[in-house]
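Cont'd.
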Amino acid sequence: MRAVREDVRNVAIIAHVDHGKTTLVDAMLKQSGIFRWNEKVEERILDFNDLERERGITILAKNTAVRYKNVKINIVDTPGHADFSGEVERVLKMVDGVLLLVDSFEGPMPQTRFVLSKALELDLKPIVVISKIDRPDARPNEVIDEVFDLFIELGANDDQIDFPVVYTSGKGGIAKLDLKEESRDLRPLFETIIKYIPAPSGDIEGPFQLIVTTLDYDDYIGRIAIGKVVRGRIKAGEEVAICKKGGSIQKFNINNIYQFEGLRRVPVEEAKLGDIVAVSGIRDIEIGETIADKDNPEPVDFVEIEEPTVSMT
Ligand code: GDP
């Protein structure tokens, strides 16, 4: 049975380093109502990895989620560099749209070209976010023209070129659809995501399939596989089949299923089509493998690491 998950949106953020991604996601988290009044926002969200900080590029795809009205918005980070093209593909396969974040002074930068070209190739819906609009040197109109030129150059289709634009200041916690408009919060950004990013859809009653995009490790719960449910549903504790890369099948009982809520993983009873979840209890699992129904273990076709198709110059 085909279902549309109107209560979920899955988006990836594409941004050049320093264009304000972390600050904006921080602000979205603060406003999404996930944090109780006495809860401190932990340091920075997306760039807690020291190695990443050192190298100034995002190495690991991280998951976070915000709630707006009755919709859960899963936000996944994309590695901004073509060296991680395999990971870029995997991350983009989880989402139905992208936020292309561009600094209102600097304009589009080469690091985001590759990821954007992949997103356009995969026919994902883009929303252009012009960030740091409070900068005194902001030149948003020119920057939009530059983004437009980039879309044309990358061969975007008519629908993609007709992208919605949201102007934001992560620092000020505001978003607006029109520069002349007054704004007090990020609501216009949340509304645009819900309006333009398609809700995930697919077969919700068919045999379960989850494609593993990221692995994590926790001292208490051990190895954690993270990915999107692409078909069916699953309950905590159920037995599943792992479709290994070599073609073999292994059976495991999953322990817990977790959804992302803000920066945390929260245990849930069930995951279904369209959800991005973490599961524990599978000792032997690799990125790119499929967690599947134990009686119908079908692997999801998966693109392995490819050479960049767009030059970085
Ligand atoms: P990231 O590398 O894309 O995650 O960027 P960060 O969020 O870490 O921001 C990079 C720099 O830009 C930091 O010095 C921030 O203080 C600054 N910055 C981020 N958002 C804004 C904003 O909305 N307005 C202004 N003026 N500066 C910002």
